[in-house]
From TrEMBL:
<dbReference type="GO" id="GO:0003677">
    <property type="term" value="F:DNA binding"/>
</dbReference>
<protein>
    <submittedName>
        <fullName>Helix-turn-helix transcriptional regulator</fullName>
    </submittedName>
</protein>
<dbReference type="InterPro" id="IPR001387">
    <property type="entry name" value="Cro/C1-type_HTH"/>
</dbReference>
<dbReference type="Pfam" id="PF01381">
    <property type="entry name" value="HTH_3"/>
</dbReference>
<dbReference type="InterPro" id="IPR010982">
    <property type="entry name" value="Lambda_DNA-bd_dom_sf"/>
</dbReference>
<feature type="domain" description="HTH cro/C1-type">
    <location>
        <begin position="18"/>
        <end position="62"/>
    </location>
</feature>
Length: 65
């Protein structure tokens, strides 16, 4: 799992949506979203599921491609 690649995918999925809106949608802090996007942290499995659901993707499409 490449943190930088995952971060890039997450930023592309977020597009023009604010980090605040995404953080509320998946139930994590804005700083957590920022760390995921900057490649500083990989979300835990339960958060991966929430992120995938939020973006209407599968966990595999985001984290394992």
């Amino acid at each position: 799992m490449n943190r930088e690649r995952i971060g890039k995918i997450l930023m592309e999925l977020r597009g023009d949506t604010s980090r605040e809106e995404v953080s509320k949608g998946i139930g994590v802090s804005v700083s957590a979203v920022q760390m995921y996007e900057n490649g500083q942290r990989i979300p835990k499995d339960d958060i991966k599921v929430k992120i995938a659901s939020y973006y209407n993707k599968t966990v595999g499409e985001i984290f394992y491609t």
